[in-house]
Amino acid sequence: MMPAAVADAEKSPAEQSTEDDVGNKHVLRQAQLSRELQELNEMLADKQQLAGQMMRSDEHLASVRLQYEVRRDCILCVCIVFIHVTFVPCRRISPSSGVKARQRLCSALF
Question: Rounded to whole angstroms, how far apart are CA atoms 21 and 25?
Fold first, then answer.
């Protein structure tokens, strides 16, 4: 076996040029792959950030929806109580007690 330095010295310029080309292509390919990997990592980071924002938006929307439903239910309850308090006494007044009494009661409630 020959030492590497002797083997390199015995190679023709064409062989040496071919090996240099292969080495350069390898280095260029590695650089290209490195850039692509960096771009993919940046895209992944952007997608993760977007996913986080979407989750926070979903959580906020759920909170707002819950507040809306609670308020809607409270308003509905208040309306039901108001209607009950307002109209049930009006219906309980008999016609014999007089129209004026019914009008006074209903106008006081509205």
Answer: 6
